[in-house]
């Protein structure tokens, strides 16, 4: 699945203490400070900042996500007008003091609809990611812990799913379940599940071959204890980091389904549906499509940047 990124397993540079004129050095050739940190005091603090904090880009992305959550929970705080209020006399008004984002063909305030649409887009993105991640974890555990036959079956299924475009898989699911917001969540979730399954399978098989698991087996630990205490922790954290990236992807695909008319039905405000409504007025009222499109791009980018920051922080551990 092109939208899913395989996480690298955490790795750390070892410390070597070969003699040198300045004292011990690390694997990259930098000095080791008296506290045992590679790279010296200032460099060590810089490394700890990059590994332990989100960084400037991550903080900006976090602020955008917080604003989106506020808009989803309390839309009246950011958009004063009612998103469904119709005022034909104010139809197709350009952005101005009374309507910062302009109005649509029915005189509805575009700003209020963009803010209210955050709830639908964010909800579909989060739920679809939970569905895809949950299904992928189950499939990945079955493939990683099961025998060769089960592993081969799950592997073939995921390979076939990877060969198909995600939107096509989602449309097939919608063709079976019918249109609507809930089917859109399930469609995007099931379409992204093979990517999570492949990640979990690789992490589980890597954990099974680790010395920690081999030692636990030699000590007589039960298979259930070994899986819960040693295999799952090694597999779940990278999946959580990738899932944060998947939320942004799910928001985009959910908006695409609504754009095609199989997602959230009108007149409920939803960014993809608003893009579809604005197609007819691109020449006369481009703001009808511009602001919902910007909302999709900004939220998806912010969630992706935040996910990458979370992943780097997890790898630094």
Description:
This protein has ten helices and two strands. With 317 residues, the chain is an all-alpha fold.
Biggest sheet statistics: 2 strands, antiparallel
N to C succession of SSEs: EEHHHHHHHHHH
* Morphology: elongated
Number of strands: 2
Whole-angstrom Rg: 24 Å
Distance between the termini: 27 Å
Cross-sheet strand order for the largest sheet: 1-2
Helix content: 55-70%
Question: Which structural category do the helix and sheet elements fall into?
Answer: mainly alpha
The unreliable regions are: 1-52
Number of helices: 10
Rounded mean pLDDT score? 79
The fraction of residues in strands falls at under 5%
What are its keywords?
10 helices, 2 strands, elongated, disordered N terminus
In short:
The chain is 65% helix and 1% strand.
Which SSEs are present, and which pair or pack?
Elements: E1 15-16, E2 25-26, H1 40-52, H2 55-73, H3 110-145, H4 148-163, H5 166-177, H6 181-208, H7 211-218, H8 223-259, H9 271-277, H10 287-316
Antiparallel strand pairs: 1-2
